[in-house]
Amino acid sequence: MNARIIVRLLAVSCVCMGMGRAQTPALEAKFAIEVPGINGIPPSYVPVGAGSSLVLYEGHLHRLANAGPGIRKPSAIKLEYKADGDMVTIAASAYYGEVDLKTTPISVETLESEALGSYSGKLNDSVTISAMEQAGLEPMTIKIVTAQTDNPYHPPTRSNAPSLRIDYSPENRVFGLVTVHNLSNKAVTAVHLGSLKDGDIWNMGEVRGVRDELIAPGASYQIRVYIRPRGRLVKGSNVEKPLPGHMTLGAVLFADGSYEGDRTLAAGMVAHQIGRETQQQRILSLTEPILAQPELDDNARAERIRIAVKQLPEDPDAKMIDSLRAQFPKLSDSGVATAQTELSSGMKNEKERFDSCIKNFDPTSSPEEPNMSLEHWLDVSYAK
């Protein structure tokens, strides 16, 4: 597992920028947990709030040299922590079995688990999870620190779209809040946010609305962003790399099909949308005849549909590319190449979304409708 993936997995309590779905209220936290870095990466931090937890995977799980051959190595360690006055309590558990990294930390909860005890500490205390030894692992030491840093990241903001304005405010050492103000009389369906330093865009990602609206005319929208650790560990000390100098709104899509800002970013957002919508149409067309087969029960239909959808291509066809070129006739060759990548990404993401949905099919999950059919399940949880 590479270092980049490990950092992403550590941020299990983040709201990532790629899929903004709702207004994000402020996180109030007094403490944070400092998790030691690995593979030259600086420490990561997670705020201590209500119901906070952190799941650690392969990179942090080092088998003891003298661990007995009969001791199974856990595939994950979960730390659940909460603040109680001036104390932070931490409950540790080991999980055994295969972890689906695409659905963590949800997939971890389905595995066999073992309690590794409870620990506590105050501000600036180092807490060693000593019971990891009984699971055959080297104990890990975490530190309790303040949620806020002495020097919070607070970059200036800029918008490449005249009709939108953005503000940024730091929340704690892990999160910041970006507020997007729609100054136009048109609804916004998607924005692309990132940071700019020395002319290079450090993309934070696309934020898209549900059912074609993200921000109403004249309204504002807040998105929580994760401040990634930046730097290297050199001889045990963290040498920080400066965070990007500007928070930037690169492009915006409006509900009427128009856009403002960087043409390549806008084309990429449209391409991703075309890819997802095209794939969804293909998926729905494929499911209809299978749902209509009377000789199959819903579980058999679900499995047949899942296998069939898996075979759908993820490469854009000429019609999709022509549609994109028609919307962006002045797009450069490199911009077209980027957009083609986004077309493919949208198609792949839609297949993954459907696969997750149909794997979770449970006719008894709704108290109002305990015998929900597969057709109704897909209508409620996927098509809409």
What does this protein look like?
By secondary structure, the chain is of the alpha+beta class. It is 25% helix and 30% strand. The chain is built from 6 helices and 18 strands. The chain has helices at residues 3-10, 263-291, 298-310, 318-327, 333-359, 374-383; strands at 31-35, 44-47, 52-56, 76-84, 87-96, 112-121, 126-128, 141-146, 157-159, 164-170, 175-182, 188-197, 200-208, 220-226, 231-234, 237-240, 246-254, 259-261. Strands 9, 12, 13, 17 and 18 form a 5-stranded mixed β-sheet that branches. Strands 2-1-8-7 form a 4-stranded antiparallel β-sheet, with no helix packed on it. β10 and β11 (175-182) form a beta hairpin.
Domains, number: 3
H-E string: HEEEEEEEEEEEEEEEEEEHHHHH
N- to C-terminal separation?
A: 35 Å
Question: Structural class given helices, strands, pairing?
Answer: alpha+beta
Radius of gyration, in angstroms, nearest whole number: 23 Å
Shape: globular
Beta-strand content estimate: 25-35%
List the total number of helices.
6
Largest sheet, described in full?
5 strands, mixed
Mean pLDDT: 81
Helix content: 25-40%
* Overall number of strands: 18
> Low-confidence runs (pLDDT<50, min 5 residues)?
1-26, 197-203
Please outline what is shown here.
By secondary structure, this protein is α+β, with helices and mostly antiparallel strands. Helices cover 25% and strands 30% of the residues.
